[in-house]
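Continuing from the previous page of notes. For each protein in this section, the sequence appears first, followed by its structure tokens. Read the first protein now.
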Amino acid sequence: MTEAAPIDAMPTKQFFVDMLIRDIPLERAVLDLVDNCIDGAKRLRDPAGLDFSGLWVKIVLNEQSFVIEDNCGGFDIATARDYAFRFGRPKEARVTPFSIGQFGVGMKRALFKFGREFSILSKTHNESWSVNVNVDLWENEPSWTFGFLTADTNGNVPDSERGTKIEVSRLRPEVSSRFSTQWFQNQLSEMIRVHQRQFIAKGLEIRLGGTALTAVDLNFLTGTVTPSLEEYEEIFDGVTVKVKIVAGVGLSSPQTSGWYVVCNGRVILAADRTEETGWGRATPDNRDVPKFHNQFARFRGIIYFDCTSAELLPWNTTKTGVDADSPLWQRALEKMITSTRTVIDFLNDLDSEASDQGSAGPLAKALASATPTQADRVTQKAIFKAPDKERFSGPVMKRIAYSRPEAQLNSLMAALGLNTAKAVGEQTFDTVYRDKVI
């Protein structure tokens, strides 16, 4: 009996590329490339990400090409050969402590998603190399390798030239049309400001189309109200994951309220108000957390996960959400839900006060006297503490509302020399009170 040849289950390159790029939005693919720059900055400067001053990332995109360039130290030939262009991270690959690149797909996925030709030039202190890939030709070759265009291991590269430049051309039509719009560039700018806010705040300059981006403000009110802060550690196979949870209130803003999930400095979820972060779920003691609505527009919560080994953190491969099945996440989520419920109790009290007293109530006065404080500066362990009502209490105020014919109101405003219905109501009340009570 003749032995049959083995069945070939190797995927075609075209199928592999199409599947690789399908599940990530275009903006997120750009963020993945910025993440790689930040990992370079961590290798060059500070793994914990405390100081990135003097380092920069520049992005230029239009209907014809995409370019991202940095001065974050580059990566060497061995890394390019053995890891950077592999589809997935080999176990033996060198790991950047506190990295935000984890799965080994971000750069390749972005390049293939953007266009059909790309070039990469990278320089370290003593090496430089370049690669140029025509995707159409590569997909028709049997080999899955990329050849170096240049490779030099004998260089003495000046500090000012150490970094990486990536250029993608022959953009996909759907990518070209979006890159060309100001709307897309504005949206991308805001996403970078939010999701890389911690690195920008630590000195990394990120420019989009020549404009330096600022870190989005994320503030808690302090002073008259105290945010809760809890810190703890979990250990997995001898590796420590540090967790910090901060919950409190900020200025009323439905767009920025909710939970922020941060892994090794990278914001994974921003202003999340879904069940993923506990909204609409029950607390461990069976007290429901309501679904979000604008009554809770002051709520702010941040959970930080930090670990030298990125694979232990509870994020998905596209960094667009959490790994809901992670035991680390599940334990943290219980604490988040409890923190949410505590702050919601206060916001319910605030809403009840506002319906009766408006902005004249003691809780509203206390929040008006509070100090907006950047989230990174909230470092004192504490439980959430609502304002001291007694300190801001005055006479209990009640709201009066009634309607009268417009012609009569206008006549009375003219007679009293007033120009608002509210002023008329207040003055007529005070007049009657003096006549009938005092």
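Done with the first. The second protein uses the same format. Note its length before scrolling.
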Amino acid sequence: MKFDYDLLVIGAGPGGLAASERAAGYGARVAIAEQDSVGGTCVIRGCIPEKLMSFAAEFSDNSQVAAGYGWNQAECAFDWQQFIAAKEREIHRLSQVHNQKLEKAGVALIKGKATFVDAHTLDVAGRKISADKILIAVGAKDVKPEIPGSENTITSSQLFNLKQQPKHIAVIGGNYIPVKLAGILNNLGCQVTQVFLEDHILSAFDKDIALAVEEGMTKRGIQILENTAVKEVKRVGDELDLILSGKNANILSVDTVLFARCRTPNNSGLGLEKAGIQLQSGSIVVDEYNQTTQANIFAVGDCINRINFTPVAIAQGRAFADSQFGNNPHTVCYEYVPSTVSSHPQAATVGLSEAEAHEKLGDVRCYCSRFHPLLHSLTNRDEKTLVKLVVDSHSDRVLGAHMVGEGAIEIIQCLALALRVGATKKHFDEAIGIHPSIAEEFLTLR
């Protein structure tokens, strides 16, 4: 049977773009269907706008530090609308860059929503298109909780396009997305109250790291309401009243409510049943090669709900293209994938937490240091940095590296490679660091 394309990709996010460009490089005839701007959640309403907003928030810390180093403090104010306009220009530029890369690679971009007709055919905005292989890379979407008044709330995607800066915002959730947004908004001058069900924030992270981040956020003025649920959101004039239950049962009045804890695979409305594609808890079922229950259809990224990070989706997309079009079958290794919290204070982690290591191996050693960084030796900031290694007592292999403080993201990114190739505590002890630096603290832990 003759098909229109060798590969048809649904979704022009990181995974879909990586797969389509790699497959086209092997000589495949490739098209990609996208109903939104090219770039996906990461570029349009996720990682990139969030990181730009985090950069903006860092200037608040920088201005306070500068005073301790002899810089006269001038009056400084954040202009929300100016930032949003500048952010939009950059997002548009990045989307156009991805468009140009597709064109250069020879990938056809087809605008419109794609739905399955059968295992080899998609309907894209009324046009029937066939392909030998199909890759689903539709990502995930924000979900609001089913509580009364949820229509009065916003999601993280909507936050980046607000016309006015919130004065008092309630951030609901305790995982890494709401934590970093709470820190960012607080540094930009919003009054922030964070509400979550767990005992402490970042419950999936090493507990020492989680508590250090929470302490830093509290010192910066963020109100933390743990073991607390939102039962209802009522609009009262220009304000929103949150009816809270649990440890902090009360009424909290704010002007904006942000639900940032829930995302779900964006698999509805694709007609997956027409192609014989199986779902489990809303996620597309795939094997280690990202093949679905239909032999010619594959899926990557957040829609399969494994590790929902942009670099993981890119790795999955490229591995798929290598395996199916490059005569180089291989899978993605999910060990030692670093994760970050662009919070204030900043945090990052790779490998096992102390609790996970104890559960998995039993006998482990932990090395931890909490100190006042040199940067703040001339300031009045009560700022602490925390570094931690989790080590297998039998093999001496470093199982986890964790950090809270300035530079955590860049430092842990580099340590991830060391852990992946099997670095031991002895390797860390024998390495010579750069002095003075925060990174060298990982080499001096005893």
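What the second structure shows: The longest strand covers residues 127-136. The two ends are 66 Å apart (CA to CA). We return to this in next week's lecture.
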